[in-house]
Amino acid sequence: MIQTPEPAQIKAAHYATAPTPPISSPGSPSSAAISNNTSRPPLAMSIINHHHILIVTGPAGCGKSTVAKGLSDRYGFDYIEGDDYHPESNVQKMSENIPLNDADRWDWLILLRDAALEALKRGAKGVVVTCSALKKKYRDVIRTARLYDENPNANVHFIYLQANQELLLARVAARQNHYMKDSMVLSQLQDLEEPDDDEINKIKDVKIIDVSVTQEQVAQRVAEVVDNLLNELA
Ligand SMILES: Nc1ncnc2c1ncn2[C@@H]1O[C@H](COP(=O)(O)OP(=O)(O)OP(=O)(O)O)[C@@H](O)[C@H]1O
Ligand SMILES: O=C(O)[C@H](O)[C@@H](O)[C@H](O)[C@H](O)CO
Q1: 8 A C-beta contact, residue 48 and residue 140
Q2: Which residues does the annotated region (Disordered) include (predicted)?
């Protein structure tokens, strides 16, 4: 989540040279919820044996940054805030309430994918990325991370935070100093393709979390789901 109206520093011109990703600042109350409120399991073997990229997805205001910080703290994974990787032109558009289109998003998605791979290459145990990933074809771009990873191939998991329009609008309205306005939430909902049957039952790399509950309850749900996921792959 970008808190200031400053344009992003990072340009998406060359996706092959991903910038150094921002690492989470630990200790926010929300991240503490996921990392502490749920008892920490023994370190999942899969964290040691696999490369994991957790993509926290959903429209603006669903709680991606909140959840992602918690996951990063819980597993000691690097944290990549998707908002920080938009080219200046995208930030400008969003600040002016102009919805992004596919063309605006391609390089951004590839940049995020490559930033996650870069982090793994530098030795990160795993990576958590926030990315709206509103359409199936956007998620497919991120899915190709597996093809570009070195041994072991990265496991990409999408954690889709599901919320209705009313809830998203309320959370965005309550948030201070952020460029995303109500109208942007509405345009994102128009673009949104929720994970479909193929993704859920065939590719099986999507988990859906209902976020219409408190931050602590969301944290609990997400921690349970991701603990299981990582342990299943051990
Ligand atoms: N479960 C929850 N209950 C109530 N408020 C929440 C919950 N989760 C997050 N929030 C609040 O809702 C607002 C949006 O959360 P957050 O910034 O994490 O969403 P986001 O999906 O990252 O948004 P964006 O895509 O616009 O960056 C924040 O003010 C956050 O504190
Ligand atoms: O896909 C998009 O339309 C945008 O990239 C958004 O997802 C923003 O990055 C984010 O939601 C801002 O808060």
Answers
A1: no
A2: 17-36
Distance 67 CA to ligand 1 centre (A): 8
Q: Read off the pLDDT of residues 42-67 as tens digits, 9 standing for 90 and up.
A: 555 566 678 999 999 999 999 999 99
Q: Which residue owns the Cα nearest ligand 2 atom 11?
A: 60
- Under DSSP, the state recorded for 21 is P
What's the whole-number mean pLDDT along residues 109-122? 96
Closest ligand to the CA of 56: 1
Question: What is the residue type of 68?
Answer: A
How is residue 201 annotated by DSSP? I
- Write down the pTM of the prediction: 0.85
Q: Two tokens at 229?
A: 């996921």
Distance (Å, rounded) from C-alpha 114 to C-alpha 108?
10
Torsion of CA 31, 36, 42, 48, to 10 degrees: 10
